Predict the structure.
Amino acid sequence: MGLLIKGGEIVTAETRLRGDIFIEDETISAIGPGLAVPPGTEVIDAAGKLVFPGFIDPHVHIHLPFMGTFAKENHAAASAAALIGGTTTFVEMCCPSRKDDALETYHTWKQKAEGNCACDYAFHMGVTRYDDKTEAQLTEIVKDGTTSFKIFLSYKNFFGVDDEEMFHTLKLAAKLGVITTAHCENAELVGQLQQLLLAEGKTGPEWHEPSRPEAVEAEGTTRFATFVEQTGATGYVVHLSCAPALRAAVDAKMRGVKLHIESVLPHFLLDKSYAERTGVEGMKHIMSPPLRDKRNLPVLWNALKSGLIESVGTDHCPFDKEQKLMGAKAFTQIPNGIPGIEDRVNLMYTYGVKRGGLDIHRFVDALSTRAAKLFGLYPRKGSISVGADADLVVYDTSYRGKISAATQHGINDYNGFEGFEIEGRPSVVTVRGKVQARDGAFVGKPGIGRLLRREPQRKE
Ligand code: URP
Ligand code: ZN
Ligand code: ZN
């Protein structure tokens, strides 16, 4: 039986038109006004609502051993929360530690997700060591359809790679035609500054930002861009948080370096004063790169509007209050990360499109289409076109509400955006034509999500 999404305002990264969308066998088979459909077709009335392509979160952590604990998350809960918030595909970071075997880790991450995700998903393969086995292992992983890498310039001795390893990873990425995403902070400076601050008795969460200042992120961004340039690779800076790092990335782009920029939800809406709150209140807002001085927020919004910042993820990485309190005696022990997978679309729509002058097509591009293009998912994902997967978000712009841990669907015990107003939320969310969420509730089938196998984007 087909499904008709009838009479909505269809908004993509490029176009806007009122019409119907007819879905058969998981994909979109017709788009247009007043479509004639076979008897028995299920009809969803989208009159007065917007219809977006399913949103894509290109940066999430679900299974994550990190900082002596595990992210408080699982695939069933995270994917249901994602869907309620309009995200129909996410890309999870597969993160071996430096001592883990890459291939074994990849299989572990795949097993954790398989049969447990209610939305579609893919992985960025973390490269956290480069040794004799790495080229063969990564080649096998790319052949399996995981065609993007992730490196960390920070987190020395755990996830972090040194410059030699970064060079070899980027050379291999260029050869295989895959894009490399990177967390850009200078690991050595972070480590040294942390020790200096702790030695001065500066142990609270308010010292996290001073231990990783803007210049440290700018240095990491410059160095990553230089290595991308010298290896002929394609790079993607994740969770860029501040003006100096943005300038470094834009400077590289202007030289013709194939470098793309992502920022994530917290850095558009929160500043470092949240992390300066005392005790666990501050700890809830510890992430890396850290929340910044508020003068950076309008810079990030303007860069998003102009397209310099190309995509918006969440860096969803939940730890509960008890875990955060592991850092009660030293900010260096606070697990880094904040949840956001459920809230990205509604918050960016509210504070961007409704209140901030963000063009609605740029919004769709930044939260869906651009990630699909950069990570080999387009036009199957990120578009509303005949033949595309029927991942659709019927969006109710008349909804009014507030973000709250009391009503969220994720399993964490706080929400970093507590009390933020939202103006709009998904009314119906489909994954390959199946209705998975309605008006703030998961109504679909758990575990139907598929691993998206992707082709390399470009070969040397
Ligand atoms: O604080 C963060 N961002 N936690 C997750 C790991 C990472 O660096 O992305
Ligand atoms: Zn990171
Ligand atoms: Zn991350």
About this structure: Residues 77 and 139 are 32 Å apart (CA to CA). The longest helix spans residues 214-231. The chain has a mean pLDDT of 98.
